[in-house]
Structures are given as structure tokens and as C-alpha cells.
Amino acid sequence: MAEPEAAAKELRRCVNELGFVGALVDAHVDGLHYDDRRFWPVFMAAAELNVPVYLHPTYPARSQRPSYEGQYEAGAARSLGSSGFGWHQETGLGVLKLYAAGLFDEVPTLKIVVGHFGEMLPFMLERVEKLSVRWGNQQRTWRQVWDENIWITTSGVWSIAPMACILRNTRVDHILYSVDYPFEKNENGLRWIRELQDSGLVTPDELEMIAYRNAEQLLRVKAATTDGSGGRDEDPEK
Fold first, then answer.
1. How many CB atoms lie within 10 A of CB 176?
2. Minimal CA–CA distance to 178: which of 155, 146, 145, 194?
3. In the predicted model, is pLDDT for residue 173 greater than 60?
4. Separation CA 214–CA 218 (nearest Å)
5. Where are the domains of the chain?
6. Are 156 and 184 in contact (CB under 8 A)?
7. pLDDT tens-digit readout, 196-238
8. CA atoms of 30 and 46, how far apart (whole Å)
9. 230 and which of 153, 166, 193, 222 could share a cystine (Cβ 3.0–4.6 Å)?
10. One-character DSSP codes across 138-190
11. How far apart are CA 14 and CA 221, in angstroms?
12. Terminal CA-CA length for the chain
């Protein structure tokens, strides 16, 4: 993302020649989010190719690190700046900046994926919807963009309580099961899926949607079966 034009060219090559089904990029480049239009060729290319862009958390830039330091051990500061809190809120903030900057008006078919139960955004969804009317003259509301352009994954957050919030304000067909391997174990993910199944929060059909069918739809792939079949769906209209 530090070289957006080159990144867009590489994305086209990867999708058209190598069969990639999307892109995963750091949520910022040295502390810069992607509201700057110089980064937008990557998002335009993704929309043109009909593939999603996954904004993944990354460590704070050197200039950001002092804001996570304090009267505690260095290990606590590292955690607060990364998986303990900081990189989640930085990723969520980056998505909000994209909305405020008008990216989703410029590229209305863009598909964005964020992990870790939506990087804090579902909990703040209604508040952002209310306050974002002050952010400019966007063609669509934050709620519309959330419903139409953003998918979230579970990726390693094995809790039922946040899922209850998500199911109340997020389209079930935009929720994707994800393990966060190698940082999390597949066994923990399976245990959580079983907890969700037993929780009564979702129907059997919704559980299947979250577990694999939503990913099939978004990525235009077929989940592997016990006989090893599956793979990419070559129909570009699906």
C-alpha cells in the first residue's frame, strides 16, 4: 500500500493470472490510514475485479507508540498498542475515515472485510450512524454502507456476548467465520462454533451461513468437502 499504483497492478495480476479471490492489506501505512485519495487505486481495482479487500490490524507506527506507553511494564504497552486493544481500534477508525472521505461514494461496489468481530465497530454502530451526519455530504448513510459494503469475521474472538450484539445490528449474510490461524487454534474455533450452535442465537440455516456459505458467496469459492472437491467458482456474475 506504500506504492498504491503498483499495488493495484499487482492485485490485477494476482486475480487475473493467479486466481486470487481478494487482497489483505495492513490497516495503515506507517500510521497513515487510506482516506488519502492516493491510496484509492487499490480499492478501485478491487471493485473492478469484484474481489474484497481485507483490512488487517498491524502494529502501531513508531510515532504512535508513545501514546500506548505509561506507568506499567513494557509488555503491557506492547499489548495495549496491538492485540490487547490498539490495533483493533486503529483498524475500525480507518474504516470510518474511508467513509468520511467519501470512498464508498467514489467506489460504491467496494467490498471491505474487517476481522475480530468488526474491530469494535458493531458496538459503536448506532452512535456512529447518528453522529456521522456531521461528516459531510455522503450519498449514503453509514448504516447503508455498513449493510452493503462491509463484511466482518469472527477471527479469534471466541465470545458469545459480542456475537449477540452483532446479530442484532449486522446482516447475518455479512458475518464470516474465521479462526485467525496461526495466532489461534482451529480447535478453539470449532469449540466456539459449537457454543454458538447451542446458544440459541442463530438458526441452523444462519449457522451454516456464518460457518461457510457467506464466505462462498463473497469469495466465489466452494468449501472443500470430505472427498476433496471444492475450489473457485469461475462464474464472474456470482
1. 23
2. 155
3. yes
4. 6
5. 4-232
6. yes
7. 999 999 999 999 999 999 999 999 999 887 666 666 665 545 5
8. 22
9. 222
10. -SS-HHHHHHHHEEEE-TT---SHHHHHHHHHS-GGGEE----TTTS-HHHHH
11. 16
12. 28
Q: What is the pLDDT of residues 103-124, one digit of tens each?
A: 999 999 999 999 999 999 999 9
Whether 145 has a pLDDT exceeding 90, the answer reads yes
d(CA 124, CA 117): 12
159 burial (CB, 10 Å; 0-12 / 13-18 / 19+) is: exposed
Helix (H) or strand (E) holding 105: helix 103-106
231: which 3 cell numbers? 475450489
- In CATH terms, 4-232 corresponds, of 3.40.366.10, 3.40.50.300, 3.20.20.140, 3.40.50.720, to 3.20.20.140
| Half-sphere exposure of residue 82: CA atoms within 13 angstroms, side-chain side | 11
Looking up cell 447503508 gives 144
Q: What is the largest CA-CA distance in the chain?
A: 56
Mean pLDDT over each residue of the chain, to the nearest integer: 94
Residue listed under C-alpha cell 458467496:
217
Q: pLDDT class for 183, splitting at 50, 70, 90?
A: confident
How far does CA 50 lie from the centroid of its chain?
A: 16
Question: Residue 171 CA to chain centroid, in angstroms?
Answer: 14
The predicted pLDDT at position 234 comes to 56
Q: Which residues contact 174 (CB under 8 A, 6 or more apart)?
A: 147, 150, 151, 152, 214
- Cell digits of residue 213: 456459505
Rounded to 5 degrees, φ, ψ at 172 are: -65, -25
